[in-house]
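Lab meeting, action items carried over

1. Structure of the two-component assembly. Owner: GW. Status: complete.
Input record:
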Amino acid sequence: MVKLTVDGTEVEIAAGSSVLQACEQAGREIPRFCYHERLSVAGNCRMCLVEIEKAPKPIASCAYPAAEGMVVKTDTPMVRQARRGVMEFLLINHPLDCPICDQGGECDLQDQSYAYGMDHSRYAENKRAVKDKNLGPLVKTVMTRCIQCTRCIRFATEIAGVPELGATARGENLEVGTYVEHALTSELSGNLIDICPVGALTSKPYAFVSRPWELRKTDSIDALDAIGTPIRVDSRGGEVLRILPRVNDDINEEWIGDKSRFSVDGLKRRRLDRPWVRRDGKLQPATWPEAFAAIAERLQGLPGHRIGAIAGDLCDAESMMACKDLLASLGAHNLDCRQDGAALDASRRDFYLFNSTIAGIDAADAILLIGTNPRREAPLINARIRKRYLATAGRLPIAAITPPSDLTYKTINLGASPAALAGLIDATTPFAETLRAAAHPMIILGQGAIARPDGAAILAAAWRVADAVGALKPAWHGFNMLHTAAARVGALDLGFLPGPGGLAMPAMLAGGVDLLWLLGADAFDTAAIAPSTFVIYQGHHGDRGAARADVILPGAAYTEKDGTYVNTEGRVQRGYQALVAPGEAREDWRILRAFSATIGHTLPYDTIDALRDRLAQANPTFARVGLARFGATDTGAPHGEGGIADAPFTPAIADYYQTNPISRASLTMAACSANAPPALAGSPLAMAAE
Amino acid sequence: MSGHFPADNIGDGSTAAHNRDEPTHFALDAASEAEIARHITKYPPGRQASAVLPALYVVQDQMRRQTGSAWIPRVAMDAVAARLEMPPIRVYEVATFYLMFNTSPIGKYHVQVCTTTPCWLRGSDDVVAACRKITGIKGWHETSVDGLFTLSEVECLGACVNAPILQIDNDFYEDMDGGLTEQLLIALKDGQARPAPGSMIGRQTSAPEGGPTTLKLVSE
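Predicted assembly:
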């Protein structure tokens, strides 16, 4: 710790901190463009100049280490004049096109020139112009606006792990770009838009759509993957215009994956906005009472064991609870949420959670990836692993039992087949020793590893690996399940699984039930549903499930309802409704509640709060928003018999950009998918051949 | 353009792809490979990327040997990146930053005139005028019609004591004036062997004109 004085206030800060950080701690605002607390320090914009006693010149505070006894002044005539000068230089080549710039209203340069700049320009010469670059379908460039802070270059190199952006040529001719024109190959490229302090990098799909002050901002939780990224939904006049990440150091830091950010146009296309009922083999528009009547009629005299429900990947916990209660009132125990057939064991919570937590990755000192491609399945967890990898100067040992792919960090490949697990259990594989020697080893198991006939045995084997290498300790739980669906952990928590004598999904599809309620579930081959089964699809998009349905009940997408989501760590989070669902579509739990009344099995909750009380009653986890970190107190392995096949693991996600009805309906995602790099989309065979 | 540097003297920040002369393929030959390997040994293991500057010189020389034009096509930068295990963009950044690397084809002789203050005071304007007269080149970083010369303006070459300096490829011709420049370029144009580099008025290294006046033992 060093003690220094900032504008007369004494502050104490960790040794190695910069003067800028000390000033922030003292509550002083320091203007900056190139400095970003999650990127390396460049020190090239010079906006953060401060005066330090005994220093003859103003000092760039971002790049100057704080030292004992330093006396810093952030608001003196010298500082003000220096910043004004820097601002004048920055504006020399910056166009005055704020009125047509998408960054207008949320532009660092605009705000800071207002606060620190001059009221006029003395520059009468020609400004330089720079050709725009084509960085693909997500990031729009207006390179003349670039002030060469190099944040984007550092983000691409450090955080995203795709060193593709650079500054070529020099002096007045310096340009930021890829030099050889190509689309960015990162799943995090949208964050470049957020970190660009000016309007050089803006959102292509959002170009010229709206001004920030016209938007209604609603806090929510992303439902397109299992990370549970906190998001801000910006809407105007009944449509979501954009989605931005919120900051949560324990989950996403301040990043978000491209799928979660740019699928917004999918929320407007292919929507189910009215009920439909299949009459004479054809889906016909219907009213809500007609749709309910059609279901009630089919339910007539149907025994409970012939009724089933499958929950989809985007469901909120409330609707799944209501669905489960509805089926229970009908005596049905055929429930399943494992659309991919993953052999998840819900008998104990730590069998299906990312127990080390995402923030825990920052402490990991050895990582084993089993049957997972985190870059496609959970980009922010992958970025977190990369962060840890860089923090250890590339010495973090990471091994992967998975088809080879570019994960943005070096991995030791232990083959793609589960046979490698045996070698880790009996410690014949050298990496077992690495894991054993680690204080915080992490074993990360993907859905691709357990969504196969021998999945239960693989789950048990992976747990035994964790146990054998000493990853299951009271102070550190090193067993991690990486989910891909936002609904999955919530569904497991509330027990959306076959009850006593209940059927699992394959049996339900194969004619085991006569009435099948698909709660937003269509991530499977609907042709596998027995032809005689009466299918109800309750969801928001006219996708595969709706095409097979006999009755369609239009539901709300995640931006259109209050909902509870539990992320892969087991973190309970609540999103708020940003806008109302289109047409006659309703919030899903209300649909189930309304239907329950028409058949005389009224569900005992009238408000979402009452429903949440019911959730907390089903599992106390839901009573507390947030995450309790816990260690491993019971090393007993999950149940899993049988042999393990030799077949190599296949990734759970073949195409990062299109994994659910919303992203499949998105034109932006389709454009991304069409020229996706091999690391983000491609068959396992093609990946193996790389 | 308002900057000090004429735009086309600095390399091309946008893209090399538009370069019509861009070859489709480049491979390090045995000589280059040996030379790069030698440079890499100067740095600690794992720091081979530090050899990027000498490696780019090696590649530029290989292009001179193979095509008669000492420049670095994009594919050659890629070859350097692959050899030094670094991202290609990091090589593009370096290659486009330094004026010594030509990112587009040049003539057989790269004529580089220093016009920084000391050389200018000692008459670099005459040297430039002579270059323009003999080669017929009007602007900067242009190549003569016969493809023999490319004329570049360079910043201080670090040989101010012998100003003005005319650098032809890697050789310094010192103590130039208009007449000497004309002679030199005509000789090159006529296909004669390159004169020995160094002082063109017979100075011994940077010793005073007329020979050393002190330290008389210094004769070589």
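2. GW to write a short summary for the group page. Key points so far: Confidence is low (pLDDT under 50) at residues 684-690 of chain A. The interface with chain B takes residues 125-126, 128, 130-131, 157, 163-175, 177-181 of chain A (CB under 8 Å).
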